[in-house]
Automatic annotation (TrEMBL):
MF terms (GO), sorted A to Z: ATP binding; protein kinase activity
Gene it is expressed from: BnaC04g52680D
Coiled coil, from the record: none
Species the sequence originates in: Brassica napus
Protein kinase domain sequence ranges: 1-63
Domain of life: Eukaryota
Name of the protein in its database record: (rape) hypothetical protein
PANTHER family per UniProt: CCR4-NOT TRANSCRIPTIONAL COMPLEX SUBUNIT CAF120-RELATED (PTHR48011), PROTEIN KINASE SUPERFAMILY PROTEIN (PTHR48011:SF51)
Amino acid sequence: MYTGEPAWPFADSEDIMPQLLNGNAPEIPQYLPWEARQFLKTCFARNPDERGIAEELLKHPFLRNVSDQKKVSATGVGGKRELVVVMRFKDTRKKPLRVKIFPPKPLQFKKSSHRPLG
């Protein structure tokens, strides 16, 4: 997700299973910043003693360095919402940034004791 590319070039999750069962982790691209590579190595560590727990990972320098976050407002169905967009290392691969926008939850109508006119 960080790079915008799948971890493995397989089309189906069933194709990934042999890689996982053989103890292989996705290759970490060398063009990523050092802190990002260290974070991913900690996440992918096969040995549980070397693998980070959630509390440790949340304190990792890679995740703490969020000074480049930008807050933006978006208006759409369901009203105005505030989003946090993290822009890191945008010139890393010299390719356009891909953005996925997830629609807000559909409006929920409250039940009413009023009957329709008719």
